[in-house]
Amino acid sequence: TPQFPDMILSSSRDKSVIMWKLTRDETNYGVPQRPLCGHSHFVSDVVVSSDGQFALSGSWDGTLRLWDLTTGITTRRFVGHTKDVLSVAFSADNRQIVSGSRDKTIKLWNTLGVCKYTVQEESHSEWVSCVRFSPNSNNPIIVSCGWDKTVKVWNLANCKLKTNHIGHSGYLNTVTVSPDGSLCASGGKD
């Protein structure tokens, strides 16, 4: 990000997120700069806002946290999932947040920590392992995948299912969306 050009974040089973400064020398790729602590269980996912000012983490404690990367302080805590949060994402404009959980739901949040919608109708029948927004605002969708071997595309305006993509023979771990929002790629146990 412009604010932290040599920074990456990692999430861990030690219940923390760590900000790293990349060094790119021959003996050391990076050094830890600051731990972001507050979750009470494994931190399963972390993403950075497109402006580089905030990080968003999801944890097995069932919560999401919004972090100010300048101060390292949690600015918002998102409570609503009943089981482990496995995946989190920012919308392209950083105004919306999506999360996926072992409770088999997808939740759409605002940045104030208010859950605006919980996708349950036609949702995944197993754990939701990854959620992503389309980076293209002309194609306002959320893409999700899960342990039910399915990729689902949701209309962002009403959180209704647009399409199911079936074809994997094993559970899915990850999904991503192309920059123009026209394609997605998924990966899993098959």
From TrEMBL:
Keyword Signal: no
GO cellular component annotations of the record: ribosome
Keywords associated with the record: Repeat, Ribonucleoprotein, Ribosomal protein, WD repeat
One Gene Ontology molecular-function label: translation regulator activity
WD repeat residues: 36-77, 78-110, 121-164, 165-190
Alphabetized Pfam families for the sequence: WD40
InterPro entries in alphabetical order: RACK1-like, WD40/YVTN_repeat-like_dom_sf, WD40_PAC1, WD40_repeat_CS, WD40_repeat_dom_sf, WD40_rpt
Gene3D superfamilies: YVTN repeat-like/Quinoprotein amine dehydrogenase
Record-stated family: Belongs to the WD repeat G protein beta family. Ribosomal protein RACK1 subfamily.
Name of the protein: Small ribosomal subunit protein RACK1
Source organism per UniProt: Pelodytes ibericus
